[in-house]
Design goal:
By secondary structure, the chain is an alpha/beta fold. About 65% of the residues lie in helices and about 5% in strands. The chain contains 18 helices and five strands. It has a five-stranded mixed sheet with strand order 2-1-3-5-4, covered by helices on one side. It is globular and about 75 Å long. The chain starts with a helix and ends with a strand.
């Protein structure tokens, strides 16, 4: 009991530190075009969540991202609660939750306005209720139908599980929910068929970190062939196989699949520690090397998620930065306000919508462009350190 309380203290202390860091990072990001669409034009659940937060806390970057940080916190707590009694040692459980909390994909989902962290939280809530009460929450499943289209993957996975376990009621309800989801949201087959399998593997590798994803793939296979698959295995395997299958034809939205994949992490960790401890110390060398490499890669990925602007000093083209679309809109808005410019026109509709979030309205007083304008009136020079990111030319109309 003393050991359990000790690790509980470690967990909540770590969670508090991570939240403080996430709030700092959230304030350093600018709204992207897709996020601006969710705030100003779309009518999805993301719109309602972000608008509610902005209404309460004001129109700023922290308010924009705060709901997703809260869902990250709740997801971490649910995952920690779910694994109670699952591991033989509390230390293993603590390592498992650390890895879950610091997965690049999970951290990113907590900072960006997208459905991934919502789906992760909802799925973990459903699983927590299932493991605690030993029953399926059909009310929750019904609500999920109206939250996001990606819950069709969950419904299908539960149908497979119900068929295997001969749970007739679960099979009937999840099959109906899957059909209803297809009816409401449909299935996109737009565009010319083209293979994106390599891209999907690369994205999963970035979500987990490369070695963790390889081990995830191995664990999924080993559990499926040598053990009795759990409910979580069905969910993660269904999501993985569907994402790979669809990748043969089209580019997938990884946010639809990743939440169901990352929840398998505790099973990976338990399997790893079992394999590690059944070997004598002299035969653990390869495992120790793998652990060292995973920790290094994960730490690097976490560092780049939190601190990435210094990368601009190494890039010939700043727009190649992997989070460029989340940078500098706030800085541009502040420069415009400093010059008493609050009403602009531009051919770049994406920039216009992003600047709207920071109080710069679309109008006809000033024209703004990245392309040089003859006889321009103002110049905004956006830099990071000594590196020029972009120039914006302004002409009074």
């Amino acid at each position: 009991m003393i050991e359990k309380n000790k690790y509980n203290y470690y967990f909540y202390s770590l969670l508090t530190i991570v939240v403080i860091v996430l709030l700092f990072v959230a304030n350093s990001l600018s709204i992207s075009y897709k996020e601006a669409l969710n705030v100003f034009e779309n009518t999805s659940i993301l719109t309602y969540i972000t608008k509610t937060s902005i209404f309460i806390f004001g129109q700023n970057d922290i308010a924009l991202r705060l709901p997703f940080i809260i869902l990250y916190v709740l997801s971490s707590i649910l995952m920690y609660k779910m694994t109670e009694g699952y591991f033989k040692y509390e230390k293993d459980r603590f390592i498992s939750i650390i890895l879950f909390m610091l997965l690049p994909g999970v951290l990113s989902a907590s900072l960006l306005v997208n459905s991934a962290i919502i789906v992760t939280f909802c799925t973990l809530l459903y699983l927590y209720i299932y493991y605690v009460k030993k029953t399926h929450s059909y009310i929750l499943l019904g609500l999920f139908l109206f939250i996001d289209n990606s819950f069709a993957i969950l419904f299908l996975a539960l149908a497979f599980y119900a068929y295997r376990e001969k749970e007739k009621k679960l099979l009937q309800i999840t099959s109906l929910l899957f059909i209803a989801s297809m009816f409401i949201y449909g299935f996109s087959t737009d565009g010319k068929p083209k293979g994106f399998l390599v891209d999907t593997f690369g994205t999963y590798a970035s979500i987990f970190s490369p070695l963790l994803f390889i081990y995830f793939f191995y664990t999924i296979y080993r559990v499926g062939t040598k053990e009795k698959p759990s409910l979580v295995w069905y969910i993660s395997t269904t999501a993985l196989l569907l994402s790979l299958l669809f990748s043969f034809r089209q580019r997938i939205y990884i946010e639809d699949f990743a939440p169901y994949v990352v929840i398998f992490l505790p099973y990976m960790i338990k399997g790893f520690f079992h394999s590690y401890r059944v070997r004598l110390k002299e035969f653990r060398k390869n495992y120790n090397i793998v652990v060292f490499l995973v920790v290094i890669m994960l730490a690097l990925n976490v560092l780049l998620t939190i601190v990435n602007k210094p990368l601009y000093t190494y890039l010939a083209n700043p727009k190649k930065h992997f989070v460029y679309k989340y940078h500098f809109a706030k800085e541009i808005a502040n420069e415009l306000k400093f010059k008493n410019i609050n009403n602009i026109f531009s051919e770049d509709d994406e920039l216009i919508l992003r600047l709207k979030f920071y109080g710069i309205e679309k109008g006809n007083e000033y024209y703004i462009s990245e392309d040089k304008i003859n006889e321009f009136d103002e110049l905004i020079d956006i830099k990071y350190k000594h590196i020029k990111i972009l120039n914006l030319y302004i002409k009074k109309i």
